[in-house]
């Protein structure tokens, strides 16, 4: 599976993602500077990494959403290929309208950096295809604007369509919802996908839970393997 990571000024998780993907899937990963207008070779998976693109000036992800490479990212996604946005990358996806909603300031009004637990809400997409519905995984979060917001009617539509992929949860009880969201995210939403399941945005960082001997967590490994499995099996249909 060919993978490309887009690098913006201020990205700080691009190399983490590169290492997580390359070591888990045993594949090379292309690093693509935001000023490029095309991908050198069409990747199967494009990843928009976490960080503070353009210093989060104006709004988080707003300036990155207008970078030259975004036109190619949009064509990639519209062709049905895989597009993943993590943390700041999720913010970029909402700014480009490739995913609905917005990521607002945490209710704590502070930057939150901690391990958290999220529950897999659905597996009918390319990203969680190899995980189990209801499974709880531990990924870290590191953001100031992670409160997922949609107007009530649109939020209800998103929920009815089953497009919530991850929700903040309590590992002891298995329950998930707003009361477990450290950032105040509506309905405890931590990640969503598009209608076709080929675009995913999530605030927690699976790449920071991949190399166990470096960060103490390995739940992220199953996430990358799940993507590879979903790509291989669903593309073969």
Please summarize what this structure is.
This protein is an alpha/beta fold and 237 residues long. It contains 6 helices and 11 strands.
Characterize the structure shown.
- By secondary structure, this protein is of the alpha/beta class.
- It contains 6 helices and 11 strands.
- It has helices at residues 14-25, 70-78, 88-95, 152-160, 212-215, 219-235; strands spanning 3-7, 29-33, 45-48, 82-86, 102-104, 112-120, 136-143, 147-149, 164-168, 189-193, 199-202.
- A 9-stranded mixed beta sheet has the order 2-1-3-4-11-10-9-6-7, with helices on both faces. Strands 5-8 form a two-stranded antiparallel ribbon.
- It is globular and about 45 Å long.
- 51% of the residues are buried.
- The mean pLDDT is 95.
Short key terms for the protein model shown above:
single chain, 237 residues, nine-stranded mixed beta sheet, 25% helix, globular
Bulk shape? globular
Largest pleated sheet: 9 strands, mixed
Q: Uncertain segments of ≥5 residues (pLDDT<50)?
A: none
Strand content: 15-25%
Structural class: alpha/beta
Query: Termini, distance in Å?
Result: 16 Å
What's the assembly state of these chains? single chain
Q: Summarize model confidence as the mean pLDDT.
A: 95
What strand line-up does the widest sheet have? 2-1-3-4-11-10-9-6-7
If helices are DSSP runs of H or I spanning 4 or more residues, what is the number of helices?
Answer: 6
Considering DSSP H and I runs of 4 or more, what fraction of the residues is helical? 10-25%
Q: Round the Cα radius of gyration to an integer and report it.
A: 16 Å
The SSE order reads: EHEEHEHEEEEHEEEHH
Please count the beta strands (DSSP E, at least 2 residues each). 11
